[in-house]
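Researcher: Sequence recovery benchmark, item below. Answer with residues only.
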C-alpha cells in the first residue's frame, strides 16, 4: 500500500485544489442499517447485520467527495472506511461521464494484514427517460498483491413517485485469482428522508445460493 501513497496524495491534492475554488452546491449525510453488508455479491459482514453511514459534498463544477463506513467481519478487523472523490461531466444531453477514485481502508486490521486498497474508476450514465442505464469500469493496481478490473452494467426504473426498480451485473477480473460474476435485482421505496430497499444478490461461485438484502437508510437534509 505504501507504494501507492504518492498517487493517493496527488489525487487528493487535485481534488482539494479544485474544490477550493468551487462553491459547495449540496451536502448530505446518511445513516443506515442492513441485515447483510454485501459487496459485489459477497458478504462483508459474515451474513450478519451492519450499521453504515456517510457524508457527501457536491460542487457546482461537477466534483464531489465523500466518506462512508460500515462494520465488517471477514478477518480484517471490525470497521471499513471508504474515502472517495468523483468528477461528473456532460457528454451529450442524454449521456453523463464520470471519473473517480475510491480508497477502502480497514483501520483496525491485524498487523499482518494489508487489506487497504485503492480503485480508480470511469463510467457513463445514459438517461433514456424513464430508464437510466449505467456502465462503469474499476481498476486497482494492488488488491492483496493482485491487479484487478471490475466491469459493471446497471439499469434503474422509477415506478411512480415513491418506488423504483434496479438491477446490475458485474464481472470481477483478477490477474492471478478467481474471476467472478455478480448480480443484483431489487426494488426501493422512498418517503421523504427514508429509503427502504430490498434486493437479491449473489455470484457464480460454487455453493453461492445468493442473499436477500434489506437496507433502511435515512438521508439528511
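Model:
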Amino acid at each position: 500500500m505504501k507504494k501507492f501513497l504518492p498517487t493517493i496524495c496527488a489525487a487528493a491534492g487535485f481534488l482539494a485544489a479544485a474544490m477550493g475554488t468551487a462553491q459547495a452546491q449540496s451536502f448530505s449525510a446518511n445513516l443506515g442499517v442492513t441485515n447483510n453488508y454485501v459487496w459485489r455479491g459477497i458478504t462483508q459482514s459474515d451474513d450478519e447485520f451492519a450499521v453504515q453511514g456517510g457524508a457527501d459534498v457536491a460542487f457546482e463544477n461537477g466534483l464531489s467527495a465523500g466518506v462512508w463506513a460500515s462494520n465488517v467481519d471477514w478477518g480484517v478487523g471490525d470497521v471499513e472506511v471508504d474515502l472517495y472523490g468523483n468528477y461528473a461531466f456532460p457528454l451529450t444531453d442524454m449521456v453523463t461521464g464520470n471519473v473517480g477514485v475510491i480508497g477502502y481502508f480497514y483501520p483496525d486490521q491485524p498487523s499482518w494484514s494489508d487489506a487497504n486498497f485503492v480503485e480508480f474508476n470511469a463510467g457513463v450514465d445514459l438517461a433514456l427517460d424513464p430508464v437510466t442505464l449505467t456502465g462503469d469500469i474499476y481498476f486497482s493496481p494492488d488488491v492483496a498483491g493482485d491487479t484487478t478490473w471490475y466491469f459493471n452494467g446497471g439499469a434503474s426504473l422509477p415506478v411512480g413517485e415513491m418506488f423504483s426498480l434496479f438491477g446490475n451485473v458485474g464481472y470481477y477480473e483478477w490477474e492471478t485469482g478467481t474471476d467472478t460474476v455478480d448480480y443484483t435485482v431489487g426494488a426501493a421505496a422512498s418517503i421523504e428522508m427514508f429509503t427502504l430497499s430490498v434486493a437479491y444478490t449473489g455470484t457464480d461461485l460454487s455453493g453461492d445460493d445468493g442473499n436477500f438484502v434489506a437496507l433502511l437508510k435515512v438521508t439528511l437534509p
